[in-house]
Structures are given as C-alpha cells and as structure tokens.
Amino acid sequence: MHVESGVDAVPAIRVVDLHKRFGTLDVLRGVSFDVRRGDVVSMIGASGSGKSTLLRCINRLETPSSGEVYIDGEPMGHRGQGDAKARSLAEINMMRRDLGMVFQQFNLWPHMTVLGNVIEAPIRVRGMSRREATALGEECLARVHLEEKSKEYPARLSGGQQQRVAIARALAMRPKAMLFDEPTSSLDPELTDEVLVVMRELAADGTTMIVVTHEMGFAREASDRVLFLHNGLIEEEGPPSQVFGAPKSERCRQFLSKHVQ
Ligand SMILES: Nc1ncnc2c1ncn2[C@@H]1O[C@H](COP(=O)(O)OP(=O)(O)O)[C@@H](O)[C@H]1O
Ligand SMILES: [Mg+2]
Predict the structure, then answer these.
(1) Which domains does the chain carry?
(2) Most exposed among 33, 45, 65, 93, judged by the fewest C-beta atoms under 10 Å?
(3) pTM to 2 decimals?
C-alpha cells in the first residue's frame, strides 16, 4: 500500500500518452496513468485489448510509437533533463533491471537448480559475489515459501512452484516495481491460489506492482487501483470498489458480468 513521503511526489512509474502501432494496427491509442510507490495496479480487459503490449512498452521489450514511460521520474526513451537524445540499448537494459517481469511462461533454466536460477542475474548482471547472491537468493526463496526447494531442479517442481521461483528470481534483482503478465493463466486452480497468496503478500509488503490478470478476486481485494483496457485505451479506472461496484462504462460492466462470478 501507498506510503506518503517527500520523494513520493515522483511516481514509481508514469505512462504518458503511450501509442503503439503494429503496421496499420493501432494497439495502444494514448494510454496515460501513474503508479505511486507501493501501489498495486491491476489491469483487466478482454484478450487483444493491448494489456501485454502496454507492459512490454513499459519495460521497453517493445518501443512505443509515441509517448513516454518514466521510472522514478527518469524517461525510458530519452536521456531527459533537456537531453532529447534516445537512450542506447545499454542504458535501456540498465533501466530495465529495475523492473521485475513475471510472465505466464516461467522460463526457468532447466539445467540450473532453483537457487541457481535466482542468483544468476544478481551475479552476472549486478556483479554480486556468489556468497552475497546466495544469501539474497535464499531470502527471496523464503518470500515465496520455497526455501526448502533451493537445491531442486525446475522440472521436479509443480507449475505453481516454478512460477514462485520466477517471482523470486525477479525479486532478487531488487526491482523498483514488479510487472506481472497473467502469471497464473497457465496454472490449475489449486496452483493458482499458491501463486496468488505470494502476490498478495508482496502487495501487503509495499511492493510496487502492475498486474495483468483475469483473477478478479485478486484485482478486487489486493489492488489499490484497477484499470480496464478496451481497444488500446483505458476505458475505466478507479479504486476496485468503484470499478467493480459501480462501473461507469457499459463495456466494463459487460466484461465484469462475464468474468466475475
Ligand atoms: N508484435 C506484434 N505484431 C503485430 N501485432 C501484435 C504484436 N503484438 C501484439 N499484437 C496485436 O496487438 C493486439 C493486442 O495484443 P496484446 O497486447 O497481446 O493484448 P492482450 O494482452 O490484452 O491480450 C492484438 O490484436 C495482437 O494481435
Ligand atoms: Mg496478454
């Protein structure tokens, strides 16, 4: 949850008039929103509405056609402070480290242990010693309740456990914010719950999060704000009580009537 303090005047993530076009297809058509430090923003909307593209533009896996994304006030696309020069790939990679990504697919390295997966980037990318990274990795595995699996290989874990390792791997980079793209969509219901428990704990611990999800219970109970995306625009946004309780948009009402039991 959001904590007031001086530096919080600058949002953790600011998205300004973001457009993304693929050929003639206008996928994002002017999306703007802020995520304050410690806030959890859930993003809902029909398949094809542009949710994944929006997350991918935020962490620069896609280059926006226009508009800008700011991380802690720093523009992703150009150098800022009056310098309109585009950032180099190296600079973008550096900034991307501050955003932990969790996808539907876990993408763990099969030949590495659970701990090996979690400490790889802190060692190679952050330059941490193996000893320091191991302590951090164990701490991150404890946060996802998998400390006892650290020496196991991914293939021997359930899908829910693998996704929790993927979350621990993202946390080990000590990101400024976590971006989740339908993290439970490939999981059976009982495995979904164990991942949602971990995500709720992260949310309660003050982790800044954007979560694309079809889990309406999570969106309703764990987020500070909900965005409903439709055809590349934010069609409805507000606190969950408002979006779920009294949506203004007819399309949002229809979407919710199909997705909320
Ligand atoms: N790399 C791409 N090239 C062309 N079209 C794309 C690409 N990525 C996404 N799209 C299109 O953009 C639209 C939005 O996709 P996406 O952001 O994945 O939506 P969502 O995550 O809400 O289901 C879809 O019509 C999809 O086919
Ligand atoms: Mg998607």
Answers:
(1) 6-98+177-259 (3.40.50.300), 106-174 (no CATH)
(2) 93
(3) 0.94
Q: Where are the beta strands (DSSP E) in 103-242?
A: 177-181, 209-212, 225-230, 233-238
Nearest CA to ligand 1 atom 3: 22
**Ligand 1 touching residue 134 (CB < 6 A):** no
34 CA from centroid of ligand 2 (Å): 20
* DSSP 8-state secondary structure symbol assigned to residue 186: T
Question: pLDDT tens, 127-144?
Answer: 999 999 999 999 999 999
Best substitution site from 18, 21, 22 to test ligand 1's pocket, by max atoms within 8 Å of Cβ? 22
Task: List helix spans (H) across 38-146.
Answer: 51-58, 89-96, 114-124, 130-143
Ligand 1 atom with minimal separation from the 22 CA: 4
